[in-house]
Amino acid sequence: MNKNTPLYTGLILAQTILLYSLAGAFISILLALINYWIADPLSYLGSGPYFAMSVVVIAVPLFLVISRYLNTMYSSVPQLIESPVKKWLGYFTLFVGGAILSGDLIAVVYSFFNGDLVSSFLWSALAVAAIIGWFFYSVLHEVRLTNETHTGKARLYNAIVFVVVAVSLVVLGLVAYGTPDDQRLKKIDTTISNTLGMISNDIYQYNAVSSKLPVSLNELQNVSQYTSDIEDARITYTATSDTTYTLCADFNTDTIKNSRNTSYAPAYYYGDIPDYSRHTQGTECFDIRVVTDAARKGLLID
Known about the structure:
This protein is mainly α. It contains eight helices and three strands. Helix 1 packs antiparallel against helix 2 (50-76), helix 1 runs parallel beside helix 3 and helix 2 packs antiparallel against helix 5 (152-177). Mean pLDDT is 78; it is low at 261-270 and 298-302.
């Protein structure tokens, strides 16, 4: 077999690209876990490293399959182990990958200078440095591989450690940020929160025209747009005075506990509308005051 066949070159290139992707995914997951474990009330928790976890789930099996196929080729044609193509791509990978991963380290240092917690910075820097070290070790190991140092046991051991680390990161990510079922419930609650906002807006518009609150939600002009949401979330409306009312809904998750989301300021133009995205699990009620046009003009003048 020729040392520089298109198949061999393509496999080496694919293995290199997957190594890039996995290094970046590992860093993203580790930084997200550190952000979760080291609670900083001034930082936004985010939605979770699900894209990075998806990369790991897809890239790890591909990386192992390609590595397995290359090992078979090395056993059949030992000369391929010291192929110039592998060495050139390896050193090029060190240069490009080192520059990319150094950018992650720069971002961590920038976050520290921008006010992040010292403990978060130290753990993040350690995590990024560890991944960079693993990346350089993996590439250099392949570049310096010879017929004498190429052993099946060593590669099997490295593959086992690699899989254990990848699976552990994905599992920790799911534990910290939630399973797919948890994400589904969060999406449902987000829809409910948006529906409550739409209802509050329509109630304000209704009050601006009629100078009173509706007796029921069926009197609102756009009620048909969110009727199904009202039924699914069991949203209830009660007018408590001429300018105040209560909206209640059933939520599946608790966004207040361990939440680092910043609540929004009251929107006085539409009334004292709360942040519907902040709620406990179960039935949550919100008390809202509609600011009349006269009161709103007074607020604007002041």
